[in-house]
Design goal:
Blueprint (H helix, E strand, L loop, with lengths): L2 E4 L2 E4 L3 E2 L12 H11 L6 E3 L8 H10 L7 E6 L1 E3 L5 E3 L3 H15 L4 E6 L8 H13 L3 E7 L3 H10 L2 E7 L11 H8 L2 E5 L34 H5 L2 H11 L3 H11 L14 H8 L8 H10 L12 H6 L6
Parallel strand pairs: 3-4, 4-5, 5-8, 8-9, 9-10, 10-11
Antiparallel strand pairs: 1-2, 6-7
């Protein structure tokens, strides 16, 4: 697979997001999820992304079990900053002692001696960013972590974090229907020499065309609480797909590959998207998106068709939008 630069690491242009294998979009098949991980290296993936909060450690444990024999063959990223709260749900916690605790547990779960890229998963509004990043910097000094990243933070928060310790990568949601990073953070990353890693580049499955009826989604599917997928907005959003699918057919790729090709084409082809999947077939399909290099006309055509003005609904609930740091940009 084509490679791109992620700080000191050279990684596959498309990474593998590993939330889906245990968490987020309803129950999956454990054997199939393990097959996704085992087959990803053969498909060309050399960048794997997970987090402590995904399945509250289950994603990391599965990755440790399957990938330990191949640890030298890929770059490994995980995250702290979201953890299980008293109510059993995920909560933001950027306290230094919690970050250290989660790091130690992640190292055990992943069966590794070092985490290549360690992200602050979300900014904790009750903890100065300097304190959270300072704790992560000490983990670098101790050799437990190689580099530091941060996720879904505003551009001014990024500058403060980068002043404490060099930030290698920023990970935030970015796709045809989520353009928040275009407001400021992409420019700041370029200015500071920081890699940008888009999550949910497949628009949480919307552009794949595989989810026409949201009523059949599992009760614990995250999309159940996302305005874009509700009964009022989603039918309107589906109306954009016929024209989108025509573009994919013209190019000769699948709808999912077109969504990834659009992300791959941004910012002089420097971004590293991390689509996730629970299916071996789709993992392989996603990897082949690197073969489709979009021309300027097609990129512009897609920009006009699907963007935050043509899509109905916000990406998160009003409460989540108000507490997500990146939305301040």
């Amino acid at each position: 697979m084509e490679t791109r630069q992620l700080g000191p690491f050279e990684v596959s242009a498309i990474g593998l997001g590993c939330m889906n294998i245990t968490h987020g979009y309803g129950p999956g098949d454990k054997d199939e999820a393990e097959a996704v991980l085992a087959g990803a290296l053969d498909a060309g993936y050399t960048f794997f992304d997970t987090a402590a909060v995904y399945g509250f450690g289950e994603s990391e444990k599965m990755m440790g079990k399957v990938l330990k024999p191949h640890r030298s063959e890929f770059v490994l990223a995980t995250k702290a900053g979201l953890s299980k709260g008293p109510d059993g749900k995920g909560e933001k916690n950027g306290r230094p002692e919690k970050i250290r605790e989660l790091c130690e547990q992640s190292l055990k779960n992943l069966q590794t001696d070092v985490i290549d890229l360690y992200y602050l998963h979300r900014v904790d509004p009750n903890v100065p960013i300097e304190d959270s990043i300072g704790a992560m910097s000490r983990l670098v000094e101790e050799g437990k972590v190689q580099t530091i990243g941060a996720s879904e933070l505003a551009s001014d928060t990024l500058r403060r974090a980068h002043a404490v310790h060099p930030i290698t990568a920023v990970q935030s949601e970015y796709s045809l229907w989520t353009r928040v990073p275009e407001r400021k953070i992409l420019d700041v990353c370029e200015e500071l020499g920081i890699a940008f890693v888009p999550f949910s580049p497949l628009t949480r499955g919307y552009l794949t065309g595989k989810h026409s009826d949201t009523s059949v989604m599992a009760d614990r599917d995250l999309r159940k609480n996302m305005p874009r997928f509700n009964a009022e907005n989603y039918p309107e959003n589906l109306n954009l797909l016929p024209a989108y699918n025509e573009i994919a057919a013209r190019i000769g790729c699948t709808p999912a590959q077109l969504a990834l090709a659009w992300v791959l084409a941004r910012r002089d082809r420097t971004l590293i998207p991390i689509p996730g999947t629970k299916r071996v077939e789709w993992m392989k399909e996603n990897a082949l998106a690197v073969e489709f290099v979009l021309d300027e006309h097609t990129v512009n055509e897609l920009d006009i068709l699907i963007n935050e003005s043509t899509v109905r609904g916000e990406r998160y609930s009003a409460q989540q939008m108000a507490t997500t740091d990146s939305e301040r940009d």
